Amino acid sequence: MGIVNKVMNIPTHMDFKGQDKAERLFQYIIFAFSVVGFIWGYACQEFSQTVYVLGAGVLTASLLCLPPWPFFQAHPVDWLQKDE
Questions:
Q1: Which residues 6+ apart lie within 8 Å of 72 measured at CB?
Q2: Tens digit of pLDDT for each residue in 12-53?
Q3: Which residue in 78, 75, 80, 79 sits closest to 19, CA to CA?
Q4: How far from each other are the two terminal CA atoms of the chain, in whole angstroms?
Q5: The whole model's pTM is what?
Q6: Residue 66 to residues 11, 18, 23, 47, 79: CA-CA distances in angstroms?
Q7: DSSP code at position 72
Q8: Which H helix or E strand runs over 15?
Q9: What are the helix (H) ranges across the chain?
């Protein structure tokens, strides 16, 4: 039961500033890989190389931006208490 409790206690949220940071990071990574992929594909004269480099960029950006890493949770939201 120890492993199940550890898995269930993994934080699965991201604050609003973390979402903005993740979105910008995702766009920067995709843009950088697309430029490098275009140059590499042009140098090799093979469009498939461009697609492979861009695919690697999508995988890299997904691994870095989709999980709620702790640096995306640096500004927690203070919610108001419920009126009764």
A1: 14, 15, 18, 19, 21, 22
A2: 788 899 999 999 999 999 999 999 999 999 999 999 999 999
A3: 75
A4: 37
A5: 0.80
A6: 13, 11, 9, 28, 24
A7: G
A8: none
A9: 2-8, 16-44, 47-65
